[in-house]
Design brief:
28% of the residues lie in helices and 26% in strands. By secondary structure, the protein is α+β, with helices and mostly antiparallel strands. The strands form 4 sheets. It has a 5-stranded mixed β-sheet, with helices on one face. Helix 2 runs antiparallel to helix 3. The chain starts with a strand and ends in a 14-residue tail after the last strand.
Length: 275
């Protein structure tokens, strides 16, 4: 069972909508959300909770009653369910989650200024050389964030997270294929990339191909929209392609990469917060 769920957190900026979905979260998630002082951080944390909510419902679990446990390096799992593998991410105006039959990792990053010093100091030498050979500044910037999300998705699938040094492994591009050169294990890792408006996203799976994995956009109903309650909460699958009036989603596949365009986006939000 493999799914990628993604939502635009702009949907949560309305106060009534935020409170409605906040009240549907577990106490643990509510506490995590309220630890943040900035509105943008709270929106992203709630968005990650909604993505997790969608994942758990695929397994017939009640999200508010499901207990999570955490590994040594903080990767979450469902207590008593070793068959469920999931991971969450958020950045900018997006929050997303992935689940699969094998360990998975996912990362989103809003594209900003390329951090050359970061690449020189922390990336693998081969990756830094890959960036340096690009003369066009925009291409170099896009390549930097492409590498970044691929690297983080791999770090997360291993369960090590930031405990794994960025230069301890190398992402290589072989035509349409992406491979990771690493010495942690003998597992083959598969990657899939997504381009969103002003952002990059990557998914990594341990031992299971990800070719057919496509994101499902979560549309959040407004509180009290229907007498029967909220569609997202009452059905096992969030409504697929997004859109309400102000949204349009266009998907275009290019090898391992899917281009997703037309999604409204907040351009300046804090980065690097816990989900």
């Amino acid at each position: 069972m493999e799914h990628i769920f993604i939502l635009n957190i702009n949907q949560l900026k309305d106060g009534d909508t935020f409170r409605y979905y906040f009240n549907e979260m577990s106490r643990e998630r509510q506490n995590k959300i309220m630890q943040f002082k900035m509105e943008a951080d709270r929106l992203r944390s709630l968005g990650a909770g909604i993505a997790l909510h969608a994942i758990l419902k695929q397994y017939g679990l009640n999200p508010r009653e499901t207990c999570l446990e955490y590994g040594t390096n903080g990767k979450a799992s469902v207590a008593g369910r070793p068959d469920i593998h999931f991971n969450l991410t958020h950045s900018g105006c997006y929050a997303a989650g992935v689940c699969g039959a094998a360990p998975v990792g996912i990362d989103i990053e809003e594209i900003g200024l390329m951090k050359v010093k970061v690449a020189r100091r922390f990336f693998h030498d081969g990756e830094y050389r890959y960036l340096e050979q690009m003369e066009d500044g925009q291409r170099k910037q896009e390549a930097f964030f492409r590498l970044w999300v691929l690297k983080e998705s791999f770090m997360k699938v291993t369960g090590l997270g930031m405990a794994l040094p960025l230069n301890a492994f190398e992402i290589r591009f072989q035509g349409q294929d992406i491979e990771v050169v690493q010495e942690l294990d003998d597992i083959r890792y598969y990657f899939k990339e997504f381009s969103l408006e002003n952002s990059r996203m990557a998914v990594c799976s341990a031992g299971r191909p990800v070719t057919g994995w496509e994101p499902v956009w979560i549309r959040l109903d407004t509180p009290g929209r229907a007498a029967g309650g909220n569609e997202f909460l009452n059905t096992p699958y969030p409504s697929p392609p997004m859109p309400a009036a102000s949204y349009s989603v266009v998907c275009e596949s290019r090898g391992n990469e899917t281009i997703i365009a037309g999604i409204p986006c907040i351009k300046r939000l804090n980065q690097g917060i816990s989900i």
